[in-house]
Amino acid sequence: MQYTTQMDAARKGIITKEMESAAKKEQMDVRELMTLMAKGQVIIPCNKKHTSLEPNAIGSMLRTKINVNLGISRDCKDMDMEIEKVNNAVKMGAESIMDLSSYGDTRTFRRRLTKECPAIIGTVPIYDAVVYYHKPLKEITSRQWLDIVRMHAEDGVDFMTIHCGINKETAGKFKRNKRLTNIVSRGGSIIFAWMEMTGQENPFYEHYDEILDICREYDITMSLGDACRPGCIQDASDISQIEELITLGELTKRAWEKDVQVMVEGPGHMPLDQIEANMKIQQTLCQGAPFYVLGPLVTDIAPGYDHITAAIGGAIAATYGASFLCYVTPAEHLRLPNLEDVKEGIIASRIAAHAADIAKGVKGAADWDNKMSTARKKLDWEEMFRLCLDPEKAGRYRAEAKPEKEDTCSMCGNFCAVRNMNRILEGEIVSIYDE
């Protein structure tokens, strides 16, 4: 090949088939996309070994993409059930699946994903190391942490979350600046604990160049993990979060020097009024590298409804610069999501993503809404169902309360403003009570 990674190709002016496919989806000239990729402002996560992948581009000026977290755990070991969730998520429009498996035969599940799934596949190698080596955390060596990264690369994953921003220096500042909820990132808490018990530097930070070499070899996107993301609104935008983000900005530049694609992970829990500023700070410190956010969740009091708190924050975040939303389900903070939870989380996240795309003027975004509005004006119920995010639910709701007259709904009946305006503007007589 004439290039190593998609970023390398873009910098050499080579248009890849992945660029062509992604540009077509974005209704964008492929050379414009290539220019943004050369700058690091757009990425196409695509491991060379993920042959079933249908590529998608991620960047703040493109359609906002969503990621769905799934995976097997000690309390939910059914691999086939997780695969069913994966397939449903893809059908519902998720562009990415992140395998967070933390129990059992994780490699078989991961390889099945990269063999069968057309969505972008991401993983967190630090979880898998604990499962794979099956020994006390402090006995895992630096070399073993890195070997797991290579294993995931060989298995075909398109991006990996690597918690390399929390080094000895940032960990020291975290301990000096107390938080309400400490570190809530699973990967961040694991590597922090390992550093505390061994007294060693974070191996992902210390051997960062070696990790970049692996990413370059397979064309894996580096997803710079936010170990210090805030776990409650009280901790948002604190010293630990911002200090780590500064480090991630430095690591972004080092990745680009090796033509490795990068995205940066962000909050977390955050009050509404801080979201825009956080997006702008990230864009400045990381020079426009795509921002991948969990939520942000804008309040801490809604267990069972955190897909809503995350959708509110996600819409604002994407409007002001985030390009990739990690979905949150109603089960967040409570349990592993079931099939219905996954659906609710995806729908909420897609609403947030689409609302942001309209706000930031993404090409073609509002066309969908205009088609829906036209169908509503015509009282064309079947077209409305076809256009909506969840046709099954919309159709079921109407069927459960069938109106007396087909051109109304059970809420308005003869008082339907749309029907009456259509009639009066066509010169008909409107007599609501006589009908």
Would you mind describing this structure in some detail?
- Catalyzes the synthesis of the hydroxymethylpyrimidine phosphate (HMP-P) moiety of thiamine from aminoimidazole ribotide (AIR) in a radical S-adenosyl-L-methionine (SAM)-dependent reaction.
- It catalyses: 5-amino-1-(5-phospho-beta-D-ribosyl)imidazole + S-adenosyl-L-methionine = 4-amino-2-methyl-5-(phosphooxymethyl)pyrimidine + CO + 5'-deoxyadenosine + formate + L-methionine + 3 H(+).
- Its EC number is 4.1.99.17.
- It comes from Blautia celeris.
- Pathway: Cofactor biosynthesis; thiamine diphosphate biosynthesis.
- The protein has 435 residues and is of the alpha/beta class.
- 49% of the residues lie in helices and 8% in strands.
- The protein has helices at 6-11, 17-26, 30-39, 79-91, 106-116, 125-133, 142-154, 168-176, 186-198, 203-206, 208-218, 239-256, 272-285, 306-319, 339-359, 365-377, 381-387, 391-400, 417-425; strands at 65-70, 96-99, 120-123, 159-162, 221-224, 262-266, 291-294, 324-326.
- An eight-stranded parallel β-barrel has the order 1-2-3-4-5-6-7-8, surrounded by six helices.
- α8 (168-176) packs antiparallel against α12 (239-256) and α14 (306-319) runs parallel beside α15 (339-359).
- The chain starts with 5 loop residues before the first helix and ends in a 10-residue tail after the last helix.
Outline of the structure:
With 435 residues, the chain is α/β, with parallel strands linked by helices. It has helices at residues 6-11, 17-26, 30-39, 79-91, 106-116, 125-133, 142-154, 168-176, 186-198, 203-206, 208-218, 239-256, 272-285, 306-319, 339-359, 365-377, 381-387, 391-400, 417-425; strands at residues 65-70, 96-99, 120-123, 159-162, 221-224, 262-266, 291-294, 324-326.
